[in-house]
Write a structure and sequence with these properties.
By secondary structure, this protein is an alpha/beta fold. Among the domains are: about 220 residues, P-loop containing nucleotide triphosphate hydrolases (Rossmann fold, 3-Layer(aba) Sandwich); about 70 residues, no CATH class. Helices cover about 30% and strands about 25% of the residues. The strands form 5 sheets. It has an 8-stranded mixed beta sheet with strand order 18-19-20-15-21-22-25-24, sandwiched between helices. Strands 6-7-8-3-9-10 form a 6-stranded mixed beta sheet, sandwiched between helices. Helix 4 crosses helix 6 and helix 14 crosses helix 15.
């Protein structure tokens, strides 16, 4: 049911909602004159990038913003009842009862010292007059409804014993405990792996079909919007710049920002027939004009020697327990991994959290000590290097991490942070380091006069550009990009991916691109290696792996990717809800010897 076809009163009606935050004696509006409705059984998506005001809108509706620093104006009706004029006690009775909310990070919403069953039961007991036994029965029904395997035995388990996807299911169960008329889902899948995201989206759609509840879905992912929403509101810097049916927004988006968002969404399958990486088209968010057209990256030379060669890499972490801390097992994080990487080539390592892809990258640089195997980097046998040689080796290989704010010292100017490796390695005078840093800032799309600023004065995308500039100052031959674009908004992600492709073309860089985002991987890669439980299960040219996937796990990853096509709305993937198996093994465990078959030139699949 959509608002266009419904004649009944809307479940939620928002009129001229304006939210301001106090700063000194001034108030700054971060959401301005928002008006929209959500009909019974309808899903409305609010989409926009970080800072657009979408989460503040949801928190304003729930009245969860602190009164001392925020001011909410306008009208919000829930089934005809005006919420902003209610007293605190009346609003408390509505929250979690008639209207529920799922947040982005479940571990900040779940109490780590109480079993999950007790936490869900509390939500029932708070709002309804039932016995503890009745509440427990309802909790078990809810856990079954949100597809948590073996619900009866997991009732008394704690949040840390659940995976990220299962914790999000617990949060959904808690939100549904009081049978709300409206569910607000604020970025509920952003922090999840692609397969878990697919399961959660399927689950929300199924529960909506079963219960008839309305959903206000907040996200920055246009693929998710296409799959789940009836109508869409596009927000930009506090304003709703476009509203309409989801199909109309996708096919006939009018506002420049809407078109810019859509142009930056990677579409799985859009690279069919193309062997090289492709830059994203970039559209100016103010004018709607094309700033950078889609174009090809470079193809690496076939006959050159690999700059990186990894053979039979094994990395395990001992688990010790008991009074004397005896070894009781080991985490088999990386198990018998082999691949090579040529100058000018991008090899992507893909897989879900815990598959070992980041540990592989850290083992190659010896930020983590490998247990076994051989790593040859530009003539260095990495596993045998002493401290001095290891330091020299790291000039050849650099890492870009997921969170640039965590990898930049907040007390250092960005100029000093970029210059530091150059000075520490004794590559020249401070004046030379400054010139080089200024040049690199320009090269990554920033300005040289920004060198005196501190990390907190930059946006997330700008900080990632600074991290890229710092990684380039030693003239490396290999860069390991560990989830380097995962935390970025969609348009910033497209710009940073384009930058990496540009730098590869001009500097002949080799990238080990670590990611769980299959649509981005398809766009930037020459070759792809799929990891599962520490092992590579499929590796080959990107075109072969994506157009002819052979391993079941590769097919599962691809099937889970949201497709930015509203015509597919309502599609169910039917993904299994089992949790990822544990890589922990007992003492003395010997992993099986794996065999690989070559299904096409360079395309290998684990048998």
């Amino acid at each position: 049911m959509t608002a266009e076809t419904s004649t009944a009163a809307p479940v939620l009606k928002v009129e001229n909602l304006t939210t301001s935050f106090g700063s000194g004696n001034d108030w700054h509006a971060v959401v301005r004159d928002m008006s929209f409705e959500v009909a019974a059984g309808e899903t409305v998506a609010i989409v926009g990038e970080s800072g657009s005001g979408k989460s503040v809108t949801s928190l304003s509706i729930m009245r969860l913003l602190p009164k001392s620093t925020s001011r909410i104006e306008g009208k919000v009706w829930l089934q005809g009842r005006e919420l902003l004029s209610l007293d605190d006690e009346s609003m408390r009775r509505i929250r979690g009862n008639e209207i529920s909310m799922i947040f982005q990070e479940p571990m900040t919403s779940l109490n780590p010292i109480f079993p999950i069953g007790k936490q869900i039961a509390e939500a029932i007991l708070c709002h309804r007059d039932v016995s503890k036994e009745e509440a427990k029965r309802e909790v078990l029904e809810l856990l079954d409804k949100v597809r948590i395997p073996n619900a009866k035995n997991r009732f008394d388990e704690y949040p840390h014993q659940f995976s990220g996807g299962m914790r999000q299911r617990v949060m959904i169960a808690m939100a549904l405990a009081s049978r709300p008329k409206l569910l607000i889902a604020d970025e509920p899948t952003t922090a999840l792996d692609v397969t878990i995201q697919g399961q959660i989206l399927d689950l929300i759609k199924e529960l909506q079909d079963e219960t008839g509840m309305s959903v206000l879905f907040i996200t920055h992912d246009m693929g998710v919007v296409a799959e789940i929403s009836d109508r869409t509101i596009v927000m930009f810097r506090g304003d709703a710049v476009e509203t309409g049916t989801t199909a109309d927004i996708f096919h006939n988006g009018q506002h420049p920002y809407t078109r810019a968002l859509l142009s930056a969404v990677p579409k799985l399958g859009s690279m069919a027939g193309k062997a090289r990486p492709m830059r994203f088209p970039v559209i100016d968010i103010k004018t709607g004009e094309m700033v950078q057209a889609e174009s090809e990256g470079i193809a690496p030379e076939k006959k050159v020697q690999p700059v990186l060669d990894v053979k039979n890499l094994v990395t395990r972490f001992d688990i010790r327990s008991g009074l004397f801390a005896r070894k009781s097992g080991a985490v088999h994080a990386v198990e018998n991994v082999s691949f090579d990487l040529k100058p000018g080539e991008t090899l992507s390592l893909v897989g879900e959290s815990g598959c070992g892809k980041s540990t592989t990258g850290r083992s190659i640089t010896r930020l983590v000590e490998p247990t076994d195997g051989n790593i040859t980097l530009d003539g260095y046998e990495v596993t045998k290097l002493g401290t001095r040689d290891l330091r020299d080796m790291r000039r050849t290989i650099q890492m870009i991490f997921q969170d640039p704010f965590a990898s930049l010292d907040p007390r250092m100017t960005v100029g000093s942070a970029i210059m530091e490796p150059f000075i520490e390695h004794g590559l020249g005078k401070k004046s030379q380091a400054r010139e080089r840093a200024a040049d690199l800032l320009e090269r990554v799309g920033l300005k040289a006069d920004m060198m005196k600023r501190y990390p907190h004065e930059f946006s997330g995308g700008q900080r990632q550009r600074i991290a890229i500039a710092r990684s380039l100052i030693l003239d490396p031959k290999v860069i390991i990009a560990d989830e380097a674009v995962s935390a970025l908004d969609v348009s910033i992600k497209a710009q940073v991916c384009n930058l990496l492709i540009d730098l590869q073309q001009s500097l002949n860089l080799a990238y080990l691109f670590i990611s769980h985002d299959m649509a981005v991987v398809e766009r930037v890669s020459h070759r792809v290696a799929v990891m599962y439980l520490g092992e590579i299960v499929e590796i080959g040219p990107r075109q072969q792996v994506f157009e002819n996937p052979q391993h079941d796990y590769t097919k599962k990853l691809m099937a889970a990717v949201p497709v930015p096509d509203p015509d597919r709305r309502g599609t169910r993937r039917g993904l299994a809800v089992d949790e990822i198996k544990s890589p922990i093994r007992p003492v003395g465990y010997q992993p099986p010897v794996r065999a690989y078959s070559e299904v096409s030139p360079g395309h290998f699949v684990q048998a």
